[in-house]
Amino acid sequence: MLNKFKWFTSILLTAALLIGAASVSAAASTPEKAGKHITLLHTNDMHARAVESESNGELGFARLAGIIDSYRASNPNTLLLDGGDAIHGTTFATLVEGESVVRVMNAMGYDAAVPGNHEFNYGYNRLVELEPQMEYPLLSANIRVKEDDSPLFHPYVIKEVDGVKIGIFGLTTPETAYKTHPKNVDGLVFTDPAEEAKAIVAELKDQVDVIVALGHIGQDASSADTSLNIAKDVAGIDVFIDGHSHTMLQKGLEAGHGTLIASAGEYTKYLGVVDLWIDQGKVISKEAKLIDYKAAAAIGPDKKIAELVDSIVAEQQEVLSSEVGETAVKLDGEREQVRAGETNLGNLIADSLRSVTKADIAITNGGGIRASIDEGTITLGEIITVLPFGNQIVTLNVTGADIKAALENGVSDYPNPKGAFPQVSGIAFKIDTAKAKGSRVHSVTVGGAPLDAKKQYTLATNDFIAAGGDEYTMFASYPQAGMFGALDEALTSYLRGLGTAASPAVEGRITAGATPSAASPAPSTGTKPKPEVAQPGPSSPAPGTIKEEPAKAANYTVKKGDTLWSIAKRYNTTWQAIRDVNQIKNPDRIYIGQQLKIPV
Known about the structure:
Layout: H1 2-20, E1 36-43, H2 60-74, E2 78-82, H3 91-94, H4 99-108, E3 112-113, H5 124-130, E4 143-145, E5 150-151, E6 156-161, E7 164-172, H6 176-179, E8 188-190, H7 193-204, E9 210-216, H8 227-233, E10 239-242, E11 253-255, E12 259-262, E13 271-279, E14 282-291, H9 303-320, E15 323-327, H10 335-338, H11 344-357, E16 361-365, E17 376-379, H12 380-386, E18 392-399, H13 400-410, E19 422-425, E20 427-431, E21 441-446, E22 449-450, E23 456-462, H14 463-466, E24 482-486, H15 487-498, E25 510-512, E26 547-548, E27 553-557, H16 564-570, H17 575-581, E28 595-599
Helix pairs in contact: 2-9, 4-9, 7-8, 11-15, 16-17
């Protein structure tokens, strides 16, 4: 009788949701199966996207909470988990060093979270200060204090839901050692996550019915540690809630020893849902899905969370709304663009570093640029959103050889996005993708003259890179020659100086092309060569792409399993270039048999 009542209630709730939007895929649509039904709701890489943005598909905290409410109403046996990188990324968080996000996550009723690399952006002592304010456990099994080898956080927690015992343990990417400022984690050790997972699973297996790994690990091919590898190496993990690589898994991914890996993209664009059915202490069925803005259109925001977010935003608004300057064009800081090519915003930021320092060269990492700025008025809040980390500008006196090594490090994954990708000023260079990593950069000029490997140049960069962050280890041994305030302060000052004249462009500071033959040197003209500059007009490269040497186009028919990335790799081009030449609105949606033009 109880099962019939639950079934009838489920049907009624589904019908109510469908009145608002036929496509709604909400909690009540989950079919009932044998065994006890447990729902794991999960987020990851939210990066403090507190405010709803329909145009970007960002649910924001209040609408996200509304969806969570609907699931809890449908199934009280629901847990809410976060896969890291929640408390940093927009001014909503950075103005109060993460406290605002903790307040909201408390109100939303999170049951556990794992610290991501960006949780350490305020320094690990600040994270330790925030932990007691969290009404949910912060879990990580592989972060130790170097001094006494003690764990920084609890490794796991056991939750009992409807008589089912669920063991949840945390893992943090060892990349945190260089994917936050190294000083932020000074005194900490990040141990092997797979080895820690084996030990935790061995400890939990006789105590619980379900084992959940809550990992800020990711699936990037360039990472030494991935959730896929851990699932392969460690038996006994039922579900791996993943973060760090911003991966969107629509239906999860089964890996390793039957582990279901789930990941909910980024920036509150999705709520992840994992449904488990447990019978006699064993998981007998599991399913994963994602709920996006469109699917949840009929579910309104949680009023309590909306009021809390609004009150925090109002407190900050006066400072953030002050005007800094104007831009005649959109300033491109999109993640996939600034991590894979020169953009106009990258140029502007690098120019501001060189302006304030009077350095020969400026290099800043594309991964530190976190948003775009629309055409029109530029506010202080927008600048802080673009550059939220509070990094300081430093100068180093660096040899040309180490400048070359730094550029090689930054473009090692090109055309794939990489956080270390260099946005530059005062320097121009080319990339030969046919060459091996470490030997790709050529035709480097500084101020129009060829780079001299033995000469010392004054380099302006951020203190994250200067300390060896993003694997710029060649700079770590250089003493600081000067410090010039924060990146956002330099950009603010530079824009105020430009006034209404800000219209930066992609100039061809970074281009792609074959290494010139050593047997055919260019004739000397007795004058310094000028860096290649793209002329305005149809031939100029789009922001976020690298200007390619002229080449023939090819035609390609999409086959099963293809992605724009895999096709681009095959033809030695970029997925962005294929997207643009074919005018593809959604790069995740290509279909078998589709004809594509390939800019080879």
